[in-house]
TrEMBL record:
Database matches in PANTHER family: GLYCEROPHOSPHODIESTER PHOSPHODIESTERASE, CYTOPLASMIC, GLYCEROPHOSPHORYL DIESTER PHOSPHODIESTERASE
InterPro entries from the UniProt entry: GP_PDE_dom, PLC-like_Pdiesterase_TIM-brl
Gene3D superfamilies with a match to the protein in the record: Phosphatidylinositol (PI) phosphodiesterase (3.20.20.190)
Protein name: Glycerophosphodiester phosphodiesterase
Domain GP-PDE: 26-253
Any single Pfam family the record assigns to this protein: GDPD
A GO biological-process term: lipid metabolic process
Species the sequence originates in: Candidatus Parabacteroides intestinigallinarum
């Protein structure tokens, strides 16, 4: 009898404890992979591996389409004086990143991703024309599907033509807009699954966080590199924080008080 009572009380305490434990809801995305670590570089295959090793939610990376239709992973428009989108791959293929890796093709990057678990946050950069943006989006989706990575890939872009093509081709995928000028209602109407805005946009419109939740949209902010700001965003209830300091960010969101 007494044992039953003790069990009952312990069970009750457990329930109360679970209810009071602050549950972290904010997840961390390594911006351009985890690159501020030994042997790594922005958008390198090593940065993808390191993001996976530290166990963050996702690795964000940037993709351009060359003049002869090869998708490559790089942030800037130019690499060592060559414009990626107006160059043929042959002109780019031997160029090296800061860590000594050669410029990764999307294919080589994704092949490595197939052996890892980190989520892929695929940013398609803007291209010269609406049609070129759509072509680049179609080629991107085709490769993701060929690699069997469609369930592990979220798409983001500043370019609306690219985003609309992702939404059309991948109705089950997450597609978020980066540019900041569209409100949650407009995004929902267009078929987006979320927003991925500069943190100042959500500081100006804190009500968008609740609005997104009500509409079933996700919220993501970039690029949040100061501990106080990471805490502020986590306390606002933002779903994802994209950062260049993923290990520190994870510590902060794991202890968030919200
Ligand atoms: Mg990016």
């Amino acid at each position: 009898m007494r044992q039953g009572l003790v069990s009952f009380l312990l069970f009750g305490l457990l329930l109360v404890g679970m209810a009071c434990t602050p549950e972290s809801k904010t997840r961390v995305i390594a911006h351009r992979g985890y690159w501020q670590t030994e042997g790594s570089a922005q958008n390198s295959i090593r940065s993808l591996e390191r993001a996976d090793e530290i166990g963050v939610y996702g690795a964000e990376f940037d993709v351009h389409y060359t003049a002869d239709n090869v998708l490559v992973v790089y942030h800037d428009n130019d690499i060592q004086g060559k414009n990626i989108q107006t160059s043929n791959y042959e002109e780019l293929k031997d160029l090296r990143l800061n860590n000594g890796e050669t410029l990764p093709t999307l294919e080589s990057y994704l092949k490595r991703a197939c052996d890892l678990e980190v989520r892929l946050v695929f940013e398609l950069k803007s291209h010269a024309t609406p049609e070129r943006n759509r072509e680049a989006a179609r080629a991107s989706v085709e490769m993701i599907k060929r690699m069997g990575l469609e369930k592990r890939t979220d798409y983001i872009s500043f370019n609306l033509d690219a985003c609309k093509e992702f939404i059309r081709l991948c109705p089950d995928a997450s597609v978020a807009y980066l540019n900041g000028e569209l409100d949650p209602d407009a995004l929902k109407e267009m078929g987006f699954t979320g927003l991925d805005y500069h943190y100042n946009v959500l500081r100006e419109h804190p009500e968008w966080v609740e609005k997104c939740k009500a509409l079933g949209l996700t919220t993501n902010v970039w690029t949040v590199n100061e501990p106080e700001l990471i805490q502020e965003m986590a306390d606002m209830g933002i779903d994802f924080i994209t950062t260049d300091i993923p290990e520190e960010a994870r510590e902060i969101v794991n202890t968030q008080t919200r």
